[in-house]
Specification:
Largest sheet: none
Radius of gyration: 27 Å
Number of helices: 3
Number of strands: 0
Structural class: mainly alpha
Strand content: under 5%
Helix content: over 70%
Shape: rod-shaped
Order of helices and strands: HHH
């Protein structure tokens, strides 16, 4: 059963690479592949324990990466919305209003 944990660890490492590349679709796909491996019964030995601890440590780091990316997107979204609201509420006046037909032709 340690083979499943070893495969889960490889998928976990790939998930971190996907997160660093902001490839959220790939990260989700890898997580779906990893879940059944983690849900299998595992032997309780030193090797399995070490793999589970490594996976959990990597998951904590992955959580921080995903949270930071989410927060950065949220800030960017708020700034974009604020700029759009400002632009909609206070249109800039034109420096010289356009001439109307028949004006200034005298």
């Amino acid at each position: 059963m340690t083979m499943a944990l070893a495969q889960a660890m490889l998928l976990t490492q790939a998930m971190r690479v996907a997160a660093q590349a902001a490839d959220w679709d790939r990260l989700t796909q890898l997580e779906a592949e990893r879940e059944p491996l983690l849900m299998q019964p595992h032997t309780v030995d030193a090797e399995s324990k070490a793999l589970v601890e490594a996976i959990l440590a990597s998951d904590r780091e992955l959580y921080v990466q995903v949270r930071d990316a989410r927060d950065a997107v949220a800030v960017q979204w708020r700034q974009t919305r604020a700029a759009a609201a400002y632009a909609a509420a206070s249109p800039l006046p034109l420096p010289n209003p356009p001439l109307q037909v028949g004006e200034g032709a005298e």
